[in-house]
Amino acid sequence: MKSSQIKGSCAPLSPQPEPPCNYLAHPGHFLQCMWPLHMDSMKSSGLRMSLLLITLLFGFCCLITVIAGEVGESSSAKDEAAGGIFTHSTYMDKIYGFLSCLVAVLLYGSNFVPVKKVNTGDGMFFQWISCAAIWVVGLVGDTLFRSSKAHPAAMLGGVIWATGNITSVPVVKCIGLGLGLLLWGASGLLIGWASSRFGLFGLDPEEVSKPVLNYCGAGLCLLSAVIFFFVKSDVQNPTSLEATPILIEERSLSDIPLPSDSWVDTISPKTKRPLGCIIAVLSGFLSGSAFVPMLYIKHHATSNSSMFAGSSQNDLDYCFAQSSGIFIASTVYFTMYCAVMKNRPRIYPRAILPGFLTGIMWGVGTYCWLLANRLLGPVVTFPIVTAGYGLVAALWGIVVFKEVKGLGNVLLFVFASCVVLTGSLLTAFSKI
């Protein structure tokens, strides 16, 4: 074999290529290429603790999802007794609702942790893998709970979310995991809470027993995002040669350019922060609008003149339609990306398993959020979940990944954390 040629599927695009891996002869090499953590990094107590917490969160979330099925069945009986509209009246329903919010917050805030130390390039391959995992979660949930009763138009919500999700990797590369998800959550809070509280986009406005507390809670959650904006983050992206993309077909190294892994790498440091903040806010608006089609269908299901008449009032029934819309849209975007790249997409094998884990965490967390929506109402859950998962992501950034340094930044972070916790509690109490 000539030195200027690469044969096989394991030769990296670098001036000094590593010898190709024989996956069949050495199965351990396959797992090592698929999983990003080296043996040396596994010795780090912070990373081991991160993996342990993620595993515990995922197991706890699976338990809550099973509870969601039981509560959904009992709630269906209440729906029939109340003429098809659930009244959120029982004490246990509120307990399950707030517990579901807690699990959704933990999983949403931690779902990007598995890929924090992984080179995902421009993010297009990673988002397709994670969206495929989301669809798998929706399929399993639909099979277990037999809840395929949603109108197909609910898939539009998944399309909206997937459109915003394609910018997740550039946002994390520009401003870090903590600040990125905080701004994403804050803008999503604004559009999601306002659409439910004031009846935007054709929705029916939702009333709460203590509107003053609700307004104050939502306002404090937004204020916390403004405070977090002034916390300076130190983002360090992985740049190892082992994270370079793998070439599938036989080519000559001299014929292949070696550009940056992502367009973000070509941006000056002064431009990264404002650009990342703008993209995060716009993505958050799309993410916060993802449930609008589902809520619109539910609110018009009782009208005989509507095309959605008779649609399900159970939020969990819409999870598979939502995940299907996500996977379809992400597949379309990835196909367009392959066409733009002239069928030379940047494939990162080390991002496959972490990306799949990210999608599973997001999918199960969404089941919990939809359960909380049903039991508490979106006007309560949106401020709690969107502000809460931003706080969890910020904790990962400051404690584990050291994105926030300096006493002043840490004190500002603690103050903003107190503000967001107060806002979430006020919003929760507004429904009680």
TrEMBL record:
InterPro entries: Sugar_transport (IPR010651), TMEM144 (IPR012435). It holds the Pfam family TMEM144. It comes from the Eukaryota. GO terms for cellular component: membrane. Keywords: Membrane, Transmembrane, Transmembrane helix. It is a multi-pass membrane protein. Its main location: membrane. It is found in: Membrane. The chain crosses the membrane at residues 49-69, 95-113, 125-145, 151-172, 179-200, 212-231, 275-297, 320-340, 352-372, 378-398, 410-429. GO terms for molecular function: carbohydrate transmembrane transporter activity. Belongs to the TMEM144 family. PANTHER family: TRANSMEMBRANE PROTEIN 144. This is Transmembrane protein 144b. It comes from Pygocentrus nattereri (Red-bellied piranha).
